[in-house]
Amino acid sequence: MIYIDKYSNFSKLRELNPIVKAGYFAVFLAGALLSASLLFTAILIVCISCFNLYYSSLKPVHYLKLSLIPLGFVLLGIIPILFTEIKTGETVVLNGGMFNYGITHNTLIACTKVVLRSYAATSALFFLVLTTPVSHLMWLLRKCRFPELLIDLTGLIYRNIFIVLQLSQQLYTAQKCRLAYAGSRNRNNHLGLLLSRTFVLSIKKANDQYNGLESRCYNNHFKPIAPEFFISQFYVIQLLLVSFGISSTYFISYYYQWQ
Amino acid sequence: MAVDYIAQLKQIAYSYPDGTKAIDAISLDILRGGRIAFLGNNGAGKSTLFLLLNGILKPASGEYLFDGKLVDYKRKSLFELRKSVGVVFQEPDNQLFAPTVYEELSFGPMNLGMPEDEVRARIEQVMQVLDIEKHKNKPPHLISYGQKKQVAIGSLLTMKPAMLVLDEPTSGLDGEHTEQMVQVLDKLHQAGTTILLSTHDVNFAFEWADTIVLMNNGKIETVGTAAEVFLNEAALEKCGLKLPAILQVYNMIAHRCEGGKLPKTVAQLNKIISDL
To answer: Which domain holds residue B160?
Structure first.
């Protein structure tokens, strides 16, 4: 199984101070959310994707596959915007027939904008996720004065996701070895067994893990050691240049009213 | 000279909530700086006993003395106990929860309230001993089972416990990792740490341990030196254990030897055979 957090651990920016990376993320996200023109958003997507590909250890094909996951949700979300009641005088792209519902030129443009904006925002998030390990993100959240309990829970849930995934995968393999999931009736039954067994074993694992914490003087509060980072002038200057580039392109697009 | 015991169990008993008697009135004195191996079949009570030693489980009856002080299971007493007794679980995933190996190693000493500089120095030292420096920034799910076991041990070593308890430390490890594990245990022993471990590997226990404890059905069947325990055939049979391979070979040629010390290693056995 490929774990997404593997990429952040092998990223070129792994050891860079997360505050600088959060700066990049903020600039990218601001650009994505403020963009009104399709061309500007498209340029932004290309720019962020280049950063993501260069600084993460991801291959272009894998990056594209990864991008398709949130894109699927976005495409489902735009359906209500895409199909609208057709009013007289509107340019119809696709007519729904007798229901007087269809796709118009305006809804098509609106949807394209939503898709591109969402994709740009997701790409900005990918930059943070693909270059910053979870422990560094947790450090960043602590710096931002997020509630300690929430951060501790984030860390534990993160670790347990992989334990449960591994557990369910082992159980699934054990089931498949004995010809499980053969018929449609069996499939539901076996899936139910897999889920219930994973749940029971997860509870046991959680208890065992709590013992592991207790045995090392855990007192209901995590005191993590701060990770070690570096701050490079190069990345700070690059951030300033990127901010300047994105903001000037934004103003040009605004001034010349790019579509 | 008075014998220096690090831990003493007096008539300790423990039952699980479902009524299963896991530990049945066990009494045991553990010598400071000793190497003690617990042998016994599955369900003999070894793992439960180890949890009792760290104070995770509270005995239903009996007394537990650590460093001569009675453990009263109050918050402060438990903190002191857990500071001095490190338990390494059989399944490393039960112990590793931090997002990176480095943070995992820091968990114990940070809980002890140590200054960060000292914690970092300890981590560096432990990583060097266990040869896990290259994995320090990786999350636990991206390292192998053997490496997880090493990290689990490392997470206790950074706390510098006086007594280290390891539940089947060599199970699931390949030859190389087992060898590394034994080397680490030897180093710890030389540094004065008392080491207790459970194992099913009679050959390893025979070669490594000063004292062997045979357990069966929650009770201690016999305690003694490796030679004493492995010559007690009745106890071995009761616990479903076989003789170490070296002893089996030695027994074949014993009638041709003129008494003397039992061989513990292949090299010692080889010498006896060459001297014949």
So the answer is: 33-56+74-231
Please report, for the domain that includes residue B46, its CATH number.
Answer: 3.40.50.300
One-letter amino acid at A2 equals: I
Phi-psi region of B64 (alpha: psi -120 to 50; beta: other; left: phi over 0): beta
B122-138: string of b/e by CB count within 10 Å (b at 16+)?
Answer: bbeebbebbebeebbbb
- Flag whether the pTM goes above 0.90: no
Please state, in angstroms and as integers, the Cα–Cα distance from residue A219 to each residue in A82, A87, A214, following that order: 54, 65, 8
pLDDT digits (tens, 9 = 90+) for A156-190: 888 788 888 888 988 998 888 888 888 777 888 89
Is B14 within a domain?
no
Start-end of H helices in chain B? 46-53, 75-84, 101-111, 116-130, 145-157, 175-190, 202-208, 226-230, 233-238, 245-253, 266-275
Q: Which residue has the tokens 């591994």?
A: A166
Instruction: Tell me chain A's radius of gyration from C-alpha atoms.
Output: 24
Q: What are the CA-CA distances from residue A107 to residues A8, A78, A115, A120 (Å)?
A: 38, 10, 12, 20
Q: Does residue B9 belong to any structural domain of this protein?
A: no
Cβ atoms of B10 and B63 within 8 Å: the answer is: yes
Place of tokens 């990345």: A235
Same domain? For B192 and B252 the reply is: no
Task: Kindly list the residues from chain A whose CB atom is less than 8 angstroms away from the CB atom of residue B142.
Answer: 3, 6, 9
DSSP state of B91: S
ipTM of the complex: 0.78
pLDDT band at B1 (very low <50, low <70, confident <90, very high): low
Q: How many CB pairs under 8 A join A and B?
A: 103
Asked if residue B117 belongs to a domain, the reply is: yes
Q: Which residues of B touch A (CB under 8 A)?
A: 51, 54, 56, 79, 82-83, 86-87, 89, 91, 93-100, 102-103, 106-108, 110-112, 116, 119-120, 137-142, 155-156, 159
User: Using a CB-CB distance cutoff of 8 angstroms, which residues of chain B are in contact with residue A135?
Assistant: 98-100, 103
